[in-house]
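Q: Predict the bound structure with pyridoxal-5'-phosphate.
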Amino acid sequence: MIPSKRAQSIKPSPTLSIDTKAKALRAAGEDIINFGVGEPDFDTPANIKEAAIKAIRDGFTKYTPVGGIVELKDAIIEKFQRDNNLSYSRDEIIVSCGAKHSLYNIAEALFNPGDEVIIPAPYWVTYPDQVILNDAVPVVINTDEKNSFRLTPELIREKLSEKTRALILNYPSNPTGLSYDHDSLQRIAEMAIEHDLYIISDEIYEKLTYDGFKHTSIASLGEEVKKRTLVVNGLSKSHAMTGWRIGFTAGPKEIISAMTKIQSQSTSNPTSIAQMAAVEALRGPQDFIPMMVSEFDKRRLYILERLNGIEGVSTIKPVGAFYVFPNVSYYYGRASNGFRINSSLDLSEYLLDRARVAVVPGSAFGNDDYIRLSYATSMDNIKKGLDRIEEALAGLR
Ligand SMILES: *Cc1c(COP(=O)(O)O)cnc(C)c1O
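A: Predicted complex:
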């Protein structure tokens, strides 16, 4: 059988495939340090698990309304009010099977064939492929490390056309760990209003910030921008719930209703049990989050110090998420025992091969000068992994 042109037009998620490769090597008995992971290494808090167990015991195991149970929608509405000073009603909220699914539903509900969608690079690996899957055209805009990898109105203007429909923002960012301050968001919001662009705002790392960085949602900057923004968030990162598959979107009710219709013909509701767990995650005690963040923060500072201590490696200090994104292009053109490095993929393969360390090549995120390391792994692993990286890089001449 022959897969459709649509299926052939995209690639599997590169971050998941490197993770798979590292896990396979480990299963084969290799001692691999995995900096490729994209999920917290913490267990889901016990109170959340208990809520799910109770849901099972209570027989809450049937179909629910497609866009989520009322109790969860209300908990999400409270979350937006509390954290982002944003007011939504139930018909402006939809719960989906993870934030990735929320983003996919948005792409289906919003894009027409040929619509251009602005994606600042470095980008989360999934955005371009979701755009392509919906017959729209990703317009990638390279951002500069000197400007903290931020998209600016000037950069947008260069790529603006009649067909530009939307832009996708992700802050704090996967892979850079950087974010947008209030003023830079304000400028983008004004640009979007002026040129009638929709904004897809992926704020999944909102809760994971450091050095007192205060997250602002672009939708909270005024009614005009709120009317054209879809805010995506979820529990995977904030509550260590990647496997539960709960994500949500807030936005204008016409789009939320279209997304709900699409979801009704594809997945139907997110898992009933996970929805009950999500209510507890949003309404129950939140002390898990600062505990996790303070642990991540220690690792962040350590990994930064180690990376910046390596010859030729430079890394900007992230303010959020659990990734560092060092520039490693200094090593391009060098070689060790016949292994020549000319790209981030070469370097990642070299590190896996020679140092038994898995990282993700920057090319997966649209910038070949970098690699991504996740510090969602133990301090012991980080220490051991950095020793290995340092040694392997020193071997390149
Ligand atoms: C992890 C991640 C998501 C998706 O999370 P789900 O597990 O699908 O809820 C979305 N956006 C970014 C940038 C991510 O890193």
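A: Residues 38, 98-100, 124, 170, 174, 202, 204, 234, 236-237, 242, 247 surround pyridoxal-5'-phosphate (CB under 6 Å).
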